[in-house]
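Friendly challenge for the regulars: who can give me the structure tokens for this chain first? No prize, just bragging rights.
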Amino acid sequence: MIVGLPREVKDNEYRVGLVPAGVKALTSAGHRVLVETKAGDGSGITDQEYVTAGAEIVSLAEEVWSLAEMVVKVKEPIASEYGYLREGLILFTYLHLAPARELTRALLDGGVIGIAYETITNDQGHLPLLTPMSEVAGRMSIQVGATYLERINGGRGVLMGGVPGVAPGRVTIIGGGVVGINAAKIAVGFGASVIIIDRDLERLRYLDDIFGSRIRTLASNPYTIAESVAASDLVVGAVLVPGAAAPKLVTREMLRDMPRGSVIVDVAVDQGGCIETTKPTTHSQPTYYVENVLHYGVTNMPGAVPRTSTFALTNATMPLALKLAKYGAVEAIKKDRHLKRGVNTYKGKVVYEAVASDQGLDYTPIDNLI
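First reply, four minutes later:
Bragging rights claimed.
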């Protein structure tokens, strides 16, 4: 198979879809790998490293997309890349289609086999290709939140850990999954006062066992959320419904009770956000205010730490990229039920039910098509 690795073009996205070790594994298995020049620069990977691993360097993105049978990326295509989408192309990347109507239409019109990292499962029902970036984003959410709480960055001037005689910052994390637990680790390390809210009582018991008295756990309901948000300096949105739009758990009205200059970091922004006032932002223009609350809604947070993120991500994606290259999309999907869960679009059809439901589109089970 010819595998293409284009340079990411999303705003300030420095990750890359394959590292040299992955290229070596593919070329050793007899596949051809085309790498757009400087694709790895942002992650500290040179063209020469890819060449040493067996890749061919090409100068134009168009050449990578047009020749490749499978394109491996990190982030979903943006409008400038829609023209590259074509019938039968395997696109292996994060897609986050539920709130992305234009991208979904482009994939359907192009007839692309869109396989989304974030909906692939494992035997435990977890999302192994989403997990590494959720770990990064969860940890970053506190780092980012602490930065924007500084008065010079637009916040209310709160030091997360406080000092002797002065109370620490108050952090509410909505969602106790991978993002939430990683956010809590960093917030606790900073010395903040931390609340985690989740609807799953067993998950809250687990978090209580791990963190003990260093956090408080609360069952999720509108009253609890409103009360906690109102008393917070930093709110982290960490809610995930796999493949579907995130529920809006924090309303605009709740924000009116938050302290002026408090901060919201909505990590769920890729799926539409779990804060009513969330909108996607970029690393170039990361923040905005609603009701005097500073919002951070960058959709590719891990792109700010690309060296860590690229290697963490490709550790998870490479086994499946190798399987797709070896067998082709149809046979790989038939052989691996977890990979099958990653298929969101297939030759003009939406084959992931949550995406179809959220966008009011027809749903076709993938088994009806292969």
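The chain has a mean pLDDT of 97. Residues 131-304 form a domain with the Rossmann fold fold (CATH 3.40.50.720). Your move, everyone else.
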